[in-house]
Amino acid sequence: MAEPAVLVTRELVAEAMTALSGRCELDLYQGPPDAIPRAELLRRAAGKDGLLTILTEKVDAELLDAAGPGLKVVANHAVGFDNVDLAECTRRGVLVTNTPDVLTEATADLAWALVLASTRRVAEGDRLIRTSTPWIWDPRMMLGHDLYGKALGIVGCGRIGRAVARRALGFGMRVIYTDVVRLPADAEQEAQVEWREWAALLAEADVVSVHTPLTPETRHLFNADAFHHMKSTAVLVNTARGPIVDEQALADALRTGEIFAAGLDVYEREPAVTESLLSLDNVTLLPHLGSATVETRTAMGLLAVENLFAGLAGQRPRCLLNPEVLAQQP
Predict the structure, then answer these.
(1) Full DSSP string of 214-236
(2) Which residue of the set 241, 268, 297, 306 is catalytic?
(3) d(CA 283, CA 122)
(4) Quick one: average pLDDT of 92-116?
(5) Mean pLDDT across 232-256
(6) CB-based burial label for 23 (10 Å; 0-12, 13-18, 19+)
(7) Is 241 marked active-site?
C-alpha cells in the first residue's frame, strides 16, 4: 500500500520529526520562520490524507476544499483549537485532534513567571540595569506588591487553571475562580478554590490569571469595563489566547493606573503587538513561550504525530475532539 500523504506546516522538534520519518509521504514546509503563506498552504494541502497543523494555520472550509475528500485527519499541535472550524471538519468526516495535558505544568510555570515579573517589576528592573541608567538603593525605589495573603483570581479553572492555583498555595495566596461551569463541591475542596461570579472576581482578585478558551463569548472578555472593575493594584496575566484581552483597552488601563501591571504571553493579532503596549514599563511581554520547554515541546510533537497516524490508520486517536465522526463511519 502507498504511504499516506501528509503535510506538516512547521518543522517540529527532532524527536517528532524522527517519529514521522519513513511512515508517510512527508511534505514539510521549511520556508521562512513565519507561518506558511495561505496560498502555499492551500496548494500543498491538495490530495493530502493528513495535515499536522500549528495554531497559526486556519483550518476552514477553504482549506478542506483544497485538501479534497481524501483528507482523514487534522492533527493540531496545540491544546487550543480556535484555529480549526471543528463543526466543518465534523460535517466532512475529518478527525481533529489536539495535544492537551502534556503542556499543563509548563504553562502554569510560565504564568507564575509572569505573575512574579509583573508584581515585582522584574523586567523593568532588568531594563534599568541593561541601559546603564544611574541608580542608587532607595526605600521608595521600584516598589511592587506582596503576594502573600492576597487573592489569585483564576478565569477558566481547567487543567492549566488548577495547576496555577496549586502553585498559589505555596505563595500563601487564597484562590478564587470563575468559569462557564462551576466545579463540583468536592473538586473545589480538593483544589482549594472558591467560586466567584465574574464581577465579584474582578473586584476581589489581586492577580487575575487567564486560562479560558477563546470563544465568541470570551473574545475581549477583558475590556475597558472589566479593567474599570479591577483593583488599581491588580495584575493581569494572560497565557491563554490573545484576543481574550482587548489590548488597546489594556494599554489605556495600564497607562492611567487603572490597574497596576500586566504580563502577556499571547496577543490579539499575534505576532503583532498593539504599539501602545510597547512603551509601557508596567507590562511584561513574552513571545508565546507557555509550552516552550524541551520536555514539553517534545511531548507535544510526539503526541501530535501519534494522533496523526492513529487517524490515518482508521483508529481512534488519543486526543480526539470530534468522536462523532467515528460514529458516522460505516
Answers:
(1) P-TTTTT-B-HHHHHHS-TT-EE
(2) 241
(3) 10
(4) 97
(5) 98
(6) middle
(7) yes
